[in-house]
Give the backbone structure.
Amino acid sequence: MPEEVFLSPQKKGRIAVFLSGRGSNFVAIHDAIVAGKINAEIVLVFSNKKEAPGLEIAKERYLETLYFKPKEFPTREDYDEAIIQEIKKRDVDLICLAGYMKILTPLFCNTFKNRVINIHPALLPSFPGLHVQQKAIDWGVRYSGATVHFVTAEVDQGPIILQAAVPVLQDDTEETLSERILKQEHQIYPEAVKLYFEGRLEIMGRRVLIR
Ligand code: GRF
């Protein structure tokens, strides 16, 4: 069977950002949009955490925000189904996970295939999961970094869009390395969103070609 090929749309994009925490990647994307570097608008900022600082920042920026309390839904599928409805209502083109600390169900990932991207603070496929900056230090790698990738039902395994390498220094702590990686995240995440709506990302199997 021939490999399935996907080409990202060239259009003014409608973005939903999902976050659970401070939201610095959300801010980087929004700043790039406001500066006219990305042909898109953020139509929703969603969180599973009521107190997420990123939600407050979104409100200050007059963006629509939404919070659903996970405990109010009997199953993870019910929770994601409720979000799916909200996303569909707003005609969202792309969902940017920016520190969203809840694993999306296969239902969600399949509903929005090729339309969900994530930023991860390591060079995937090395160090998937959590606390990966500390894991990179403990393993003794000389380089770690950041990865923007498409989201599939297999956590941290979707096709890679962009990566930036960051040296791991001998006296690095989790904090210093995280800070250095985060600077790169703020560069490559907006860049990946820009490429997406320029219609330049082509997924061929596991690989993403940049047109
Ligand atoms: C970032 O390190 C990102 O790579 C990871 O979660 C963190 C989110 O940070 N997925 P922020 O909320 O965007 O500041």
Observations:
- The helical segments are 24-34, 53-60, 76-89, 106-111, 132-139, 174-197.
- The mean pLDDT is 98.
- Residues 19, 21-25, 54, 98-99, 119-121, 182, 185 surround 5-O-phosphono-beta-D-ribofuranosylamine (CB under 6 Å).
